[in-house]
Amino acid sequence: MKILHTADWHIGRRLNGTDLLSDQMHVLDQLVEYIKDEGIDLCVIAGDVFDRSNPSQAALELVNEYLYRINIGLGVPVLAISGNHDSRSRLDYGSRWFEKSNYHMRTSIGDILKPVVIDGHHFYMIPYMDVLEAKQYFMDESIVSHHDVYRRVTAEIRNVMDHGARNILVGHMFMSDAKASDSERPLSIGLSEEVGTDLFTDFDLILLGHLHHPFAITHDAIFYSGSLLKYSFSEVRQPKGFRVIDTGEGIECRFVPTESKYDLVHYKGSYDEVINEKVTFPDKNAYFKFELTGLETIKDPMAKLKMIYPNTLELRPVVEVRENSMSKVDVNRSSDREIFDAFIEQVHGSELTEYQQGLFKQLFKGDIDETD
Amino acid sequence: MKILHTADWHIGRRLNGTDLLSDQMHVLDQLVEYIKDEGIDLCVIAGDVFDRSNPSQAALELVNEYLYRINIGLGVPVLAISGNHDSRSRLDYGSRWFEKSNYHMRTSIGDILKPVVIDGHHFYMIPYMDVLEAKQYFMDESIVSHHDVYRRVTAEIRNVMDHGARNILVGHMFMSDAKASDSERPLSIGLSEEVGTDLFTDFDLILLGHLHHPFAITHDAIFYSGSLLKYSFSEVRQPKGFRVIDTGEGIECRFVPTESKYDLVHYKGSYDEVINEKVTFPDKNAYFKFELTGLETIKDPMAKLKMIYPNTLELRPVVEVRENSMSKVDVNRSSDREIFDAFIEQVHGSELTEYQQGLFKQLFKGDIDETD
Q: What Pfam families does the record tag this protein with (chains A, B) (predicted)?
């Protein structure tokens, strides 16, 4: 069976106030095309389809449209769970009708022991749940971390699972040797989010969402698909795409990169080289975050940058610090004049002109002891 | 075919701040029971399932649950349209999956010429649309009122309909000899809302939502089901229930009343008779709106009323106006003392005591001419 594994679509997400719906459609078109062309048998979405618990109408329409294309248009079963960004009730709305078309949207802890069984594969769908919720659900006071939650969840499943079947867990969590980027909303405050890989040895395959880096973890059976797009400037260097898993003899998993409509670029340099195009970028329409020196005397640099790079989203001024920023003057052993000269040189990068020296003398007159 | 016709559920509606979800469930339970017991073949919901375009999670769950019971639980087709309170996108979410189970949620003008055909009955589903929208959709500048909208809609349908079939229109509008209550949100401002009955002669049956009174219109073929509950104190005297239409030889339509969990009561009288139970009500737990006299000297009357009538929602003080409220004293021809006496009698309903008369004399001394 060929499984396409994706997660963290975050439909409705905005980047520095910019709407990303058309960017998201651009990638989802590739994903749908791939499912069609490559004969994918099943699509797994490991949480955070929406970015907010209360998605906009446009976001709802987009998700509705693409899931329709995959599930009804192409007739491919869809197995999805809710993530920490999703609202369970909203995702659950209509789910009992969806099931009849093999679109399984699982949002309830109450269903974690009922695998979706397709073609000898048992998919244990574990929607995101927080520590308090799991503690109450299992009435288990020993649950105080996310690791505890999944210790309990996997123990429960172990009791009922068919160990002869191919068992696949779909979840939305922070696996322990994975690193979080800026755009994964913290799962909890004050409680450890990390879940150890050792809990999942009963499963042949663990397909995850939450972390946006598709290579956030290196493991034979545990995979993140990564997010649909780069959703923060901390993800600039992350590849984006989806995973395809072939469960033939063994399990083969590979990452399929997608092409973004616009890339994210974080550039650090000088205003001069950017505005005068002394540095070139593959796409001037990329979403730029600039950290630039030389902005001190520029009026409205953002507007000027947008003339060339229309999708500039962020501009941070960098105050140029000269290499020898530490003063070479020992204030205890130098005259006031020496201190002043050193200061002027440090700030302006040049010595006082004769005229300036004259002014200095005039202003400070006898107040400054030149020889001390 | 036995059709159950309902509308204006307004799930999520609050009455003077009070949540009505359990009241709504109480009535929906009766509706589902009726469908089961009476062998209803089809359920029509003529708009405003939700009260707001952005329903709460509890409202979403409730609608999801009852539509599931009717459509999948009992296997009864559901034909529904969006009303002016609903958000189209939200209602449309999942609708293409619902269709596969004969749950047809129609929210788009683009679909009005595609009837849902069930057992020789052609259901033209007309979601609520406003004047501007219809004008743009049909590119017809002559559309300036709701009547114009439906003139165009019915003309369009007339061109394509099978006149030999049984044609049923499902809509959400204000039919012209119908009267609006407080809780039907105005469809538009500054444009006539009323739609004439003469436009619908091509249809065997017109099943409507929007007006909350089930007998808002008297017509052989045009029916309102009325709302699920009394949603404002202006609806106190309205029966609530649903309609059952039998389309055998002819068309038989009857109204089936439902029982509310708590009734709405609007009582006008005195505080004394209410608080001392000199007047009795069938259910002290009803939702009361009291308009009472004699509140002037009562401290926190609302709290006291709630001790007996816990679901009191509204209390309006009524200042008792005596029958002869016009003063009999001609101020131009009476002494100040006569004017004052008349005033005291009017306000207190009694003459001054001797002690008060003494006080009066003392205070006004010679300033008041008693004989003028």
A: Metallophos (PF00149), SbcD_C (PF12320)
Q: CA gyration radius for chain B? A: 28
Assess A93–B contact: CB distance below 8 Å, yes or no. yes
Beta-carbon neighbour count of residue B216 at 10 Å?
22
Chain B environment of A87 (Cβ under 8 Å): 57
**Site of tokens 């659950």:** A92
Measured distance CA(B149)–CA(A173) in Å, rounded: 52
Same domain, B66 and B126: yes
Whether residue A305 sits in one domain with residue A332: no
Q: What are phi and psi of B84, to 5 degrees?
A: -75, -15
> Do B72 and A96 count as a contact with CB atoms less than 8 A apart?
yes
Instruction: Indicate whether B26 and B173 sit together in one domain.
Output: yes
Contact A62, A263 (CB under 8 A): no
CB atoms within 10 A of CB A334: 16
Is there a contact between B275 and B308 (Cβ–Cβ < 8 Å)? yes
Rounded Cα distance, B138 and B140, in Å: 5
Would you call A61 and B87 a contact, using CB atoms and an 8 Å cutoff? Answer: no
- Do B115 and B76 belong to one domain? yes
Asked if B224 and B213 touch (Cβ cutoff 8 Å), the reply is yes
Q: Which residues of A touch B72 (CB under 8 A)?
A: 96-97
Q: Is A166 on the interface with B (CB under 8 A)?
A: no
Amino acid identity, position B365: K
Same domain, B344 and B306: no
- What is the end-to-end Cα distance of chain B in Å, rounded? 87
For B7-65, write each residue's pLDDT tens digit: 999 999 999 889 999 999 999 999 999 999 999 999 999 999 999 988 888 999 999 99
Confidence of residue B284 (pLDDT cuts 50, 70, 90): very high
Distance CA A276, CA A317 (A): 17
**Do A20 and A166 fall within a single domain?**
yes
Contact residues on chain A for B61, CB-CB shorter than 8 A: 89, 92-93
CB spacing of B94 vs A96 below 8 angstroms: no
Query: What is the reported pLDDT for B327?
Result: 64
Tell me the CATH number at B33. Answer: 3.60.21.10
Which chain A residue lies closest to B75 (C-alpha atoms)? Answer: A97
